[in-house]
Amino acid sequence: MIDNKFLIKLSENLLEILNDNEYCDIVIEVGNDPYVKIFRAHMNILNYRSTYLRNILSANKKKSDETLVQIKLTNILPEIFHIILRFIYGGTISLEKYDELDIVKILVAARELSLQELVVHIQSFLIKNKTNWMELNFNLIYQTSFENNSFLELQKYCNNLISKDPDKILKSLDFSTTPEKLIISLIQNDKLQMSVIQVWEHVLKWGLAQNPELSSDPSSFSKNDFNSLKNTLRQCIPFIRFHNLTSKEFSYKVLPYKKVLPKELFNDLLIAFLNSSPNSKPGGKSGPQMTKEIGINDHSIDGLFEWYMKAAEGGDIDAQTNIGFFYQNGIEIPKDENKAFKWYKKAAKGGNVDAQNNLGDCYKNGTGVPKNHKRSFVWYMKAAEKGNLNAQTNIGYYYKSGIGVEKNIDKSIYWYREAAEGGCEIAQFNMGCFYLTGEGVRKNEVVAFEYFKESAKKGYSDSQVSLGFLYNCGRGTEKDFKNSIYWFEKAAKNGDNDAKCNMAECYELGIGVGKDEIKAFELYKESAENGYVGAKFILGYYYINGIGTEVNKKKGFKLFNEAAGRNVPNNLDYDSVSDVDKVNYWYHKVAEEDNKLALYYLGEFYSLGKGVRQNERRAFEFYKKSAEQGFIDAYYRLGYIYSSGFEIGINKEKAFDYYKIAAEGGNADARIALASLYARGEGTEKNTKKAIYWLTQF
To answer: Which of 157, 363, 536, 616 could potentially form a cystine with 563 if both were Cys, beta carbons 3.0 to 4.6 Å apart?
Structure first.
C-alpha cells in the first residue's frame, strides 16, 4: 500500500531541487526574441521524464569541462514551460488555477515534449470541466485536436458535438479561421437542420472569409475573383442540396455566383428551375451531386428570364420582382434601370416585400426615377413593417438624419434595434455607436462592444475598426492589443483606409506589434493614396521629418494642402478660417526649427477632434514633443491625459510628475490639478498642507 503523504513529500523535495541551481547541469533557452527566458535544470530528471528531451540531450552530450549543456525550445512560451517544468519535477499540476487558453497551450506543449500522461490528463480535464468554453471556442479546439493524432479524446469530443448539434456549431464559427475539413463535416451531417439556402449562405461566408480581398458583392467580381472563390469552394459544393432551393432562392442567392458552380451542375439546376414556379422546389435530387465540368450554352439564362417574364406578365409578384432585379443588374440582358423601377413598382403595389424595399432603394438612389427621399421613406416603411432588414436599417438612418421624415432618435433606435436583432450588420454597428456615445440610450460600452463584435464577425469593416479601437483602449472589454491588431488587419484587408491608418499608428508607436516606422510610412501612404484625409496629414509630417522615408518638405507641404482641400492660409485669423485650415497652418509651422508651439496646438486639435478625427494617442505624441522642448502648457496636457485619458492608460504617478513640472512653471490649471492630487493622495502621499499651498499660488 502506498502512502500518499510520502509521494507528496517526494514531490516537494523534487521541486526544491528545481529551485536550487547548485547541481544544475543544463541551461534551457525558451521562447523567441524578444521574449526569451533561461531555465536551469538537471539532465537526469529531464532524460527520464521526457522522451523528446531525451532525444535532444543525446545530441547535446555534456563536454568534459564544466560548461553547462545548452538547448533551445523556441516553440513553447516561457510561462507555459515554467508550468510544464514544475510538472516534470513534481509530478503534479493544478489546472484549475489557469485560464482555458493557457490550458490549451499547456496541452500542446505537453504533446511536443512527449508527456503523454499529462496529455491524457488535460484532455480529460477539459472534457469534464470546460465544455461550455470549448463550445464557444470550437474553432480553436477542433483545429488543435486534429493537428495530429495525439489528442484522440478531444477529437472524439469534437466529432460527437458535431453529430449532436451541427447547427449550433456552424452558427458559432469564426469563418476566417475555420478549416475546410470542419465545414464539410458540418454541411454533410444528416442532423443539420438548416435550410439549404442557409447552408449555402454559410458556405459562401466561409469562402469569402478565406479570400478577404474579395468584395461581398459578386457583381464587382473579375474572372480571377470568381476562379479564386470557385477553387476555395470546390470540395464543399457537392454537399449542398441545391435542388431543394426554391427558384426565388436560386435566382437571388445562387445565380449571382453561377461562375462558381461546375457548369454541368449549373446547367442541371437551370433546367430544373425553368420547369418550376418561382416559389416551388424542382425536387428530384436531394443528396450531394458529384459533377464534372462540361460545356453549357449561356442562352439558358435567357430562357429563365423569358420564363420569369411570362409569369410576371401573368401577375406573379415574385416573378415581377425578379424581372426588376434582372433589369437593374443587367443579368444576361441589357441593363435598364427604368424598366427595373417599373417592375419593382408593380410587385411592390402587389405586396412583395423585397420589391417594396427595392423601390425604396430606387427612390433613395435615383435608380430609374428622380431621387425622392419622402417616397423612399414610405416604401421602406412598408417593407420594414413586414420584417425586411435592409428597409428597417434605412428607416433607422432616415429617422436619425431627418431625411424624408422629421428627425427622431427614439424611432431611429427602435428600427435599428429591430434590424440588429434580425442580424443586420450595419444596424448592429449603428446600435454600437448609440451605446458607445450614449446618444438616445444610457451609455454602455460593454453593450457597444458586443454589437460591434457581432457586426465585425459578419465582415462589416466599420465595426471591425471600432472593435479594434475598443480592444486597443480597453473600453467595454479588457485591453487586448493582440485582438486590436487582429481586427484592424481584418478591416484593412477589406480595404478600410481608417483601419490602415490605425495599423500604421500601431507600427509607428509599437502598439501590439514591433515598432517599424518604415512599415508605418507604407501604410499611411497607402491610406493617403486612397483619399483618407487623416493619413495625408500624418504622411506629410513623415515627409517633413524624414520618418520612415527621406526628407521631402515639398511633398509634405503638398499633402498638408491636399488634406485641407486648399492652400495654407497666410495668417491665422481664428474667426475667419475653419478648423481644418488651422490644422493645416500648424502642420506647416512644424517644419520650422522652433516648433514647440505648433506641436502643442496640433496636440490640442487631435485631443479635441477639431479639424481632424479625435485621437488621444496622436495628441499625446505631439504634447510630448512640445514638452521636450520646454513648453510648460504641454506638460500640463500630458498630466491631464495620464490622469483621465482613455487611450493612454491612467497613471496617477506620471500625472503627478507632469502636473508638478507645469505647476512650477506657472501653469494655473496644473497648480489646481496638483493640489487635487495632494488632497486625495493620488500619485503621491496625501498632504493637505501642500494641497493648500498650491491652491494659494495665484
So the answer is: 536
Q: What is the pTM of this model?
A: 0.56
Map grid coordinates 454533410 to a residue. 188
Confirm if 50 and 7 have CB atoms less than 8 A apart: no
Look up residue 601 and give its three cell numbers: 496646438
In Å, how far are 281, 644, 656, 684 from 680, measured between CA atoms? 73, 15, 12, 9
Which pLDDT tens digit goes with each residue over 602-630?
999 999 999 898 889 999 999 999 999 99
Determine contact, residues 144/107, Cβ cutoff 8 Å: yes
Whether the link from the prior residue into 34 is cis, omega within 30° of 0, is yes
**Spans of the chain below 50 pLDDT:** 1-2, 276-300, 302
Q: Which pLDDT score, from 0 to 100, does residue 18 have? A: 80
Print burial letters for 431-470: b (CB count within 10 Å at least 16), e (below 16): bbbbbbeeebbeeebebbbbbbbbbbbbbbbbbbbbbbbb
Which residue's entry shows cell 521562447? 31
Helix (H) or strand (E) holding 273: helix 263-274
Q: Which CATH code for domain 4-163?
A: 3.30.710.10
Closest CA to 459 of 206, 199, 221: 206
Give the whole-angstrom CA distance, residue 390 versus residue 416: 10
Contact call for residues 659 and 673 (beta carbons, < 8 A): yes
Q: How far apart are CA 58 and CA 180, in angstroms?
A: 40
CB neighbours of residue 480 within 10 Å: 16
φ/ψ bin of 40: left (φ > 0), alpha (ψ from -120 to 50), beta (otherwise): beta
